Amino acid sequence: MRGNEVDAEQIRELVDIPNGVASRSIFVDEELYRRELKEIFGRGWLMVGHESQVPEPDDFMLSRMGEESVILTRDRQGELHVLLNSCRHRGMKVCRFDKGNTRLFTCPYHAWSYTTDGALVDRAGGLFGVPGWKTHYHEALDKKEWGLISVAQMRNYKGTIWATWDIDAPPLEEYLGSFRYWLDSALNSRSGEEGGSTVLVGVQKWRVKCNWKFAPTNFIGDAAHAVSHKSVNLANISPSGSGRRDERAKGHYAFGWPELGHGGLGFTPRPEEEWEQGSVFGRFPEVSEYFREVFEKRKVERAGETHYQGKGTIFPNTSFHEDQPRTIIVHHPNGPEETEFWRYYLVDADAPEFVKDTLRHYFMTYSGPGGMTEQDDLENWLYASDASKGMIARQFPYNYQQGLGYSEPFDGYPGSVWCGYRETEQNQLIFLKRWSEFMQGWNWDELMHRTPRPDYVPFPLKSTEATEEAR
Ligand code: FES
Ligand code: FE
Fold first, then answer.
1. What positions does the domain Rieske occupy (predicted)?
2. Strand 113-115 and strand 339-348: pairing?
């Protein structure tokens, strides 16, 4: 056990798994937020960017990990790095451009200079390196000791770049468990081919006055909020076509990983005719034909699978859509009452230009702050945050009882449970269960369930007898 026992006990009481309720203070409290930065964003695997954003030697892009500003770089030798964007001398940001190419990050404050692998330049005196290294530091400053801070671990996973500040964190693949196959599906629409995606145009970024957890707990499987998106159906710009959001509920299921905190909505393989009727790209015949071919290929590759992956959330703050359009959205915390959203739009790297062009226009009208759907969600999260922070409001818990006790183990993905219909809050509760485990200060052996804990709260499942009866 790490941290303070009394605090851990108080935190344990905030999420009541068996009864499906959680304290609102989780979404509004400043002290809990500070603890999240340390226990969750200081330890978990966070998505930083995509390799296609830094294709050439000395390319860089700014990103974030929790509240920390970091730089994703490709050094002169082609190796990727994730570096803290803070000068080792007095903390100034050494990089203030969103992206670019440079041989050196020269700090604007006193001109310490770093190469794109983070090293403090090993050159005495002059404009670069450490000014005055010979004359004023008397050659005593050990430049090897004062490079930019690097993350403890970094992983390039099929083009996406992930990092953690914790050297003891398990490898990313173990952290993802079998939920990894869902991410694979989002990263490559043709699962048999490696490295098939690139980020289309730039990253869309916007800030909203809401707690960061509203977004991942929405993306993890809040099917019931489809009512918020009626405007999209009326305008017939939903990727699944007009009215389909409700109809497709029949073939959709919630899958969650109670021991890892990830989850999403999956679906049964769709017949060909459903694709034809449902695709919003039907109005662009060439684009529709491209996606139909991709879909056909995927169907062959996945022959025999009973369920496909869909949208979901990787604990703590990365969500994605697997189906067209494929996007990744990272929810960066900006204090307990503000979130900065970063949305990456993915497209097959070798897709024809007309497909990329159509998608670019589509993304702008459908997603992002200027799109149709995002505004619906943002409004819900903004007002929910605002109406939960009052001294009276925060005394009453949120309700997560939808479908509670109707989940059962799913053999297709080791470690997962599923609910036979998608209108369930099992995944939101699974996310909060994981939140509680991190926040109580469990160590990695405990978090990865290598060491059993006496106070472990199992996720409520349908009893075997009840399941058999239902069959
Ligand atoms: Fe960067 Fe002084 S703060 S050189
Ligand atoms: Fe939504």
1. 45-114
2. unpaired
